[in-house]
Give the backbone structure.
Amino acid sequence: MHNNRKWLAAVVAAIAVAGVVAVASGAFSGHARDAAGRPASTANRPAHRSHPLRPVYNPPSGGNSGISLAQQQADNAKIAQAAAGNSAAWAAIEAMALPAPTPSAQFPAIPRATRQNPDAYATAFVTELLTIDFAKQARPSLLSWAVSETSPETMPGTPASAAAKFLYADLASSGSPVPSAKAWTANAASGVTWSASGVSMTTCPIWTQALAAGWQPPDLRMDCLDVTGNLTVTQPGRPPAIKPFSLQLGLGTAEYHNGYGAMSLNSWTVG
């Protein structure tokens, strides 16, 4: 394989080994940034999409992508083939029943102006997700808010009926930063609060390699961020505990809003 296609081997291997969640969780996502800190592909991104926002993959016409249309299609076919080998995982995601996409007073929608920049959006999303007063806010409200912030997964091979469920699947999993219903209730009874601060991010190397090789993403807002920050945990009678955290956040065009939305969240660590 030519050196500039090594990223494709990494993507296909990640999908084959880790299953569909590798796609949903940002194993293939991210962005390159210019000297001003803007994503390298920003100039080609649409300023907005009509509502509802449902990105659909359209093969690029070639010419200015850095690779031929035939190469783009061949890369996409390999990605789709790898994803197709995970039918059981797709079925599990497709079977999930999502709560209504509803922001609330407890978890308000991210402002439209913030949605126009990936870093600003990611900072706002992660901060709201991890800033919780467990006694005054409800887990179902958090998950409904998260669904309202969803961006569909549009990688080749993604079933349409699963595309908008990746973020919810990640957040409802055992490896999520969102506590289980039992843990949430215990935190509420103990007066626990969380507060996220110092949120910063870097780009995902595989995505940088893919863009550098000329591959074009199906959704021009598709990004991945390796996010870090501090989680301050408070509880009556105890000193505040400040814990570093990290996660990987996938972004794309929002399903229910103008601008960016959250596609996936995984690789959560804290402590």
Notes: The chain has one domain: 3-30+65-270. Confidence is low (pLDDT under 50) at residues 15-64. The first strand starts at residue 132 and ends at 133. The chain has nine helices and five strands.
